[in-house]
Amino acid sequence: MLQNYFPVLVFIAVGLAVAVIMIIAGRILGRHNPDTQKLSAYECGFEPFEDARVKFDVRYYLICILFILFDIEIAFLIPWASIVKEIAANPLIRLFGFFEMLVFLGVLIVGYIYVRKRGALEWE
């Protein structure tokens, strides 16, 4: 049984060995002359002018959550769209597959209307 996993273990060992060798070679062969300009934080060509721990507006996080929500929607729609012909060809699950996606899209549309009415997508 261990014979089946031996190539996997060899692959992992070789990968780790290559990674370690590259890190060590970079340390040995690379130049080490840091100065203040190299060690400073880079922010679009300007010197940092605020503390990095500044609080963001809540709307920023709301937009991020909405983006993730609609990204997950696509992750569910693409597999369904790829098998829609098989669903339509099978008379037993034809209506179930159609109404299942209708309910899914309905929930998303209701959520989108709610978010739109609350003004979450408006940016001042």
What can you tell me about this protein's structure?
- With 124 residues, this protein is mainly α.
- The protein is built from five helices and no strands.
- The protein has helices at residues 2-29, 36-39, 58-82, 84-89, 94-118.
- It is flat.
Q: What Rg, in angstroms, do the CA atoms define?
A: 26 Å
Counting DSSP H or I runs of 4 or more residues, the number of helices is 5
Flag low-confidence runs. Answer: none
Rounded mean pLDDT score: 84
Strand tally, please? 0
CA(first)-CA(last) distance: 63 Å
Strand content: under 5%
- Main sheet, how many strands, which sense, barrel? none
Q: What class would the helix/strand composition place it in?
A: mainly alpha
Q: Helicity range of the residues?
A: over 70%
Order of helices and strands: HHHHH
Task: Tell me, briefly, the overall form.
Answer: flat
Quaternary structure of the protein: single chain
Quick description:
The protein is built from five helices and no strands. It has 124 residues and is an all-alpha fold.
